[in-house]
Specification:
Blueprint (H helix, E strand, L loop, with lengths): L4 H15 L5 H20 L6 H17 L11 H4 L13 H17 L6 H9 L16 H7 L2 H4 L4 E3 L19 H4 L3 H5 L11 E2 L2 E2 L11 H4 L9 E3 L9 H8 L19 H11 L29 H4 L4 H14 L8 H13 L8 H18 L6 H15 L1
Antiparallel strand pairs: 1-4, 2-3
Helix pairs in contact: 1-2, 1-3, 2-3, 5-12, 13-17, 15-17, 15-18
Organism: Sesamum latifolium
Protein name: Reverse transcriptase zinc-binding domain-containing protein
InterPro entries: RVT-Znf
Length: about 400
C-alpha cells in the first residue's frame, strides 16, 4: 500500500482541484473519463496494483461523481452499473481491476510471442524460462509482479492461439499449441510414454508430409494425436481479433464479461445531445431520480407538487401523466409534430428507443433530441431548481427550442 501512495496522492490532488468547481454530473463524468482514467492507466500498465488500492481509488471516484465538492448526496446508481458501456446501460467508465489485468496481459502477450525487441522479455526468458514456457513455469519464484502476471494464465489460455508450421519456435510439452493446452499438465508422464524429451521443440514431430508423431500405445495418451491442429503456412502466435494482434479492449472484455444490451441507449447518442441533459435522462430511465415515492420521511405528503391530481409523485406519473409535464410535451408537438402517446414510463422508453433507431415517417428526430429537455424541466421543477412559475418554465422550454432551431 505504501508503494502506491504517490498514486493516491495524485488522484486526490486531481479530485480536490476539481471539487472547487460547480460541475454537473456529466462534467464530473467527463473529467473522470479523460484525466483520472489516463493517470490510472499509466500506473496500471507498469504494475499489478493491489486490489485494496483499486477499491480506494474507485471509492474516491464514486464519491466525486455523486457528491462533488459538497460531500452531500447519495449514490444513485451502483458503480458496477456506471462502469458499463452505453450499449449495456452504463456510462462507459471502466472498472480498474479488469483494466489493470487487461493492461498487464500485454506483458504476458509479449513473453508468449518472444518479443526480442523488449529488454524485459529477454531478461524474463533468460532467468525464468530457460527450460519451460510461461504456461508451465512455477508461480512460486520471481518477483511479486511476475507471480501476479502468471496468475493471468487461466483466463488467457483459451484466447491466445498458436499456428504451427515447422515447429521450430514451440516446445512440445510446455507451450499451449495443442487444443488441450500445455501437454505436460494433461500428461505429466507422457514424455516417458511417448519418448519425446521434456525440452524438445515441436519440429521433432513434423516432417515434410505433416505430423509425424511416434506410435502412441497408451489409451490415455491417444488424445494427443486425435486432436492435432492443422499445420499452417507460417508459424505465429495470434490473438482472436481481425488483425491477429493483441487488443486491450478485447482483453478487458475477457476480464469483464459483457452484460445484456439495452435498446434505450440510442436515446443518449447523437450529435445534438447535451451531455448534462442526457445524464439526467439516463437516471430517469433507470428510475433513479429523487421522487417522493422514494423518500422515507414520515408525515411527508408524497403527492405531486406540480399538479392538483393528488397522485403520488413517481417516475411514471411525472413522465408524462402529470398535467405540467404533459403541457411541456405540447410545445414539442407544436414545433416538430412530436407527440408522445399515453404510455407508462417504461413503455414510453421502449417506444422512444424504437423511434431513435431509424428515421420515422412524418416525424423528424429533432423531437427525440429535445425529449431530455422535458425530463429536465419536469424533474427540476419538483426539485426547486428552476424557481419560476409554470408559464415561465414553459416559455423557457419554448426558448430552448428556438435556439436549437
Amino acid at each position: 500500500m505504501n508503494d502506491c501512495r504517490p498514486l493516491l496522492i495524485k488522484v486526490d490532488e486531481r479530485l480536490n482541484g476539481w471539487g472547487s468547481l460547480q460541475l454537473s454530473y456529466a462534467a464530473r463524468l467527463q473529467l473522470l473519463k479523460s484525466v483520472t482514467s489516463a493517470l490510472n492507466i499509466y500506473w496500471a500498465m507498469a504494475f499489478i496494483l493491489p486490489k485494496g488500492i483499486l477499491k480506494v481509488i474507485e471509492a474516491r471516484m464514486r464519491k466525486f461523481l455523486w457528491q462533488g465538492a459538497s460531500g452531500a448526496g447519495m449514490t444513485r446508481v451502483a458503480w458496477s452499473d456506471v462502469c458499463r458501456p452505453l450499449e449495456e446501460g452504463g456510462q462507459g467508465l471502466r472498472r480498474l481491476q479488469p483494466l489493470n489485468q487487461a493492461l498487464m496481459s500485454r506483458h504476458f502477450w509479449d513473453v508468449v510471442r518472444c518479443n526480442v525487441s523488449s529488454v524485459w522479455v529477454n531478461w524474463i526468458i533468460r532467468h525464468y524460462l530457460k527450460h519451460s514456457s510461461i504456461w508451465t513455469t512455477r508461480n512460486t519464484i520471481g518477483s511479486w509482479s511476475w507471480r501476479k502476471i502468471l496468475k493471468l494464465r487461466v483466463q488467457l489460455l483459451g484466447h491466445i492461439q498458436y499456428r504451427v508450421s515447422t515447429g521450430d519456435r514451440f516446445m512440445v510439452w510446455h507451450d499451449a499449441w495443442h487444443p488441450l493446452g500445455p501437454l505436460i499438465h494433461r500428461f505429466p508422464r507422457g514424455r516417458m510414454t511417448v519418448g519425446i524429451p521434456l525440452e524438445a521443440k515441436l519440429h521433432v514431430t513434423i516432417n515434410e508430409d505433416g505430423w509425424n508423431w511416434p506410435l502412441i500405445t497408451g489409451i490415455e495418451h491417444m488424445e494427443i494425436t486425435e486432436m492435432l491442429p492443422p499445420l499452417a503456412q507460417t508459424e505465429a502466435v495470434t490473438w482472436p481479433s481481425s488483425s491477429g494482434d493483441f487488443s486491450i479492449a478485447d482483453a478487458y472484455r475477457l476480464f469483464q464479461p459483457p452484460g445484456p444490451r439495452v435498446d434505450w441507449y440510442v436515446l443518449l447518442l447523437g450529435p445534438f445531445r447535451i451531455p448534462r441533459n442526457c445524464f439526467i435522462l439516463w437516471l430517469a430511465i433507470l428510475s433513479r431520480l429523487t421522487m417522493m415515492d422514494r423518500t422515507w420521511w414520515p408525515g411527508v405528503d408524497r403527492a405531486c407538487i406540480l399538479c392538483t391530481s393528488g397522485e403520488t409523485e413517481t417516475h411514471d406519473h411525472l413522465f408524462f401523466h402529470c398535467a405540467f409535464s404533459r403541457s411541456c410535451l405540447w410545445i414539442l408537438h407544436s414545433k416538430v409534430r412530436f407527440q408522445v402517446p399515453s404510455f407508462g414510463w417504461q413503455r414510453m422508453i421502449t417506444w422512444a428507443s424504437r423511434r431513435g433507431e431509424v428515421d420515422t415517417r412524418g416525424m423528424p428526430l429533432h423531437g427525440l433530441y429535445l425529449l431530455p429537455w422535458c425530463i429536465i424541466f419536469g424533474w427540476s421543477a419538483t426539485e426547486g431548481v428552476l424557481v419560476m412559475n409554470g408559464p415561465l418554465r414553459k416559455a423557457r422550454l419554448n426558448f430552448a427550442w428556438t435556439r436549437y432551431d
